[in-house]
Amino acid sequence: MKLKNIKREWWKEAVVYQIYPRSFQDSNGDGIGDLRGIINRLDYIKSLGVDVIWLNPIYASPNHDNGYDISDYRNIMTEFGDMNDFDTLLKGMHERGLKVVMDLVVNHSSSEHIWFKEAKKSRQNPYYNYYHWWPAENGTPPARWSFFAPDESAWRYNKATDSYYLHYFAVEQPDLNWENPKLRAEIYDMMHFWFKKGIDGFRMDVITFISKHDGYPEFPSEYHGNKMIEIYAQGPRLHKYLNEMHNEVLKHYDVMTVAEGPGTHVHNVLDLVAEDREELNMNYHFDHQSIGVGERYIVDEDYQNLVKFKQVMSEWDAVFNERGWGTIYFGNHDFPRMVTRWASDAPEHRRNASKMLTTYLLSMRGTPYYYMGDEIGMSNIKFNSIDDYQDLMTINWYELTKMEGGDLDQFIESHKLCGRDNARTPIQWDDTENAGFTEGTPWLKVNPNYKYVNVASQEKEADSELNYFRKMVKLRADNLTLIYGQYELLAPDDEQLYAFTRVLDDDKLLVLLNFSDTKLAYRLPLEFSSANVLINNIKQLSLNDTLIELDAYQAVILRRN
Ligand code: GLC
Ligand code: CA
Question: How are beta strands 72-76 and 16-19 bridged, if at all?
């Protein structure tokens, strides 16, 4: 890989830090994080060294799905504050050199949005065609699967119009009708509104689902249940709409875009992100997240299969050798805490394991999306009872499993590993009550390990997870090889070690990560004998000219001399 052949872009060189505002910092004691809370923590955010902040939805919402059900795209959720707070926050970010990316949730709106409130009144209503409908006189609608509906059906009958509306997600999240040019114009207009305010990009929620199949045909029988995700993502006009969005909106600003892309795989992602397509910049996929995780998030023995993981990540990296650009992430608000999911949260391993994963995320090619709280090694809360959950997805699936007479213990055990609320527990700022998140009652329980896993104590400790994260962010920023270098996987079949090289011009780095809880020895490639150690997550290191020994969850980056 030669630097001179690479088209450098700020969003390729950025580290994105994701804030889930509901759980970041409460400023007024109602137990819910808010914009003022983020404003109060701006210096902390800046101190991380990251470049871009992605905010989960902060728009007006009745909160059936924590803000992913928007009732007004141009206003702020009452619980989070108001537009003045937003303007102050944006200004505060920009003054510190941080860019701000917002969530764009336009596959669906809230059923409380004025468009839907009008649409459901009558078939003649001008907003009726802002949504998808199946007239009841045509019989029962063809099967569509819903992520969040209690009966898993994505159609819901509406009496006033004598028709069914489509909702891939909750009943309270009706799908917007992108086939209607008026609707598309409204969305583009709204995007201009936020760009004119000065935001720096959008993360586009389930954007691959926006185009529906004409006439709502029956799907081929292999696409049943959640397998419909694959066909949802293949709507006939998806690329037409994204290209139109590019021309109408995106190309007029210097902004970044990233698709949340269920149904994107190595064979089709370039249609979305290759430069000449003029659609989006980046996409994030689910191929690694789904390793060992089945329907309703029941896990199997492949859950931490390193060989499969390496294979998936390496295939994805290769896609972007010539065109397009990738993303790298473990945690976000929909997935477990990275240290629990991909390594170990056992007390004797949690610290090193989370530093090892941080090393991985920040040494791969592709823009890293790093989830708040992972920088201090937060781990899954692992609720024992369904009553502790707030997430509608876990609650619905639990009810369904119960109704079907399924195995509820297995369900609870699996959701301790995979449930979305594990990543949504409040940030652990210090060891005072409620971890310094709120003076009230937190909307979701605080992980009891806040007594020893928290920001305040890690600030004081030179080699804490937090300070290691800062070091690693800086190392990436200072070494273009970590950003643009060619990636090559070594030892693909090794079940403990993830080893790869990165090469840019004459520079060559070797990244060695022990993904296991036992020691390993690795024979160094000749060119790395007497190499320099760039970073090491554990104080000691056993290294001679030919052999390196890695402790449990040890991570080391070497530079060829
Ligand atoms: C995305 C969001 C998730 C939300 C869903 C519906 O997957 O990340 O949190 O529930 O879309 O909007
Ligand atoms: Ca609050």
Answer: unpaired
**Which member of 260, 279, 391, 421 is catalytic?**
260
Residue 206 has pLDDT above 90, yes or no: yes
Q: Biggest alpha carbon distance in the chain?
A: 78
* Contact present, 437 and 33 (Cβ < 8 Å): yes
356 token code pair: 């090892």
Using CA atoms, how far apart are residues 275 and 261, in angstroms rounded to an integer?
17
Q: Of ligand 1's atoms, which has the minimum distance to the CA of residue 105? A: 12
Pocket of ligand 1, candidates 148, 169, 173: which has the most ligand atoms within 8 Å of its Cβ, to mutate? 169
* Residue among 19, 20, 66, 68 whose CB has most ligand 1 atoms within 8 A, to mutate: 68
Distance 502 CA to ligand 1 centre (A): 34
Cβ–Cβ contacts within 10 Å for residue 440, how many?
Answer: 13
Q: Which residue has the least CA distance to atom 9 on ligand 1?
A: 334
- 545 pLDDT exceeds 90? no
What H or E segment, with its residue span, contains residue 369? strand 367-371
How does pLDDT run across 313-346, given as a tens digit for each residue? Answer: 999 999 999 999 999 999 999 999 999 999 999 9
**In this predicted model, what pLDDT tens digit does every residue of 19-56 receive, in sequence order?**
999 999 999 999 999 999 999 999 999 999 999 999 99
Rounded Cα gap, residues 172 and 151, in angstroms: 14
Looking at ligand 1, which atom is closest to the CA of residue 332? 8
Closest atom of ligand 1 to 393 CA is 10
Q: What is the pLDDT of residue 530?
A: 87
- Residue 461 among the catalytic residues: no
Q: How many CA atoms lie within 13 A of 106 on its CB side?
A: 29
Shortest CA distance to 507 belongs to which of 490, 531, 525?
531
Cα 46–22–444 angle (5° rounding)? 125
Residue nearest (by alpha carbon) to ligand 1 atom 5: 68
Which tens digits make up the pLDDT trace of 83-112?
Answer: 999 999 999 999 999 999 999 999 999 999
* Spacing, Cα 437 to ligand 2 middle (Å): 10
- Does pLDDT of 144 surpass 90? yes
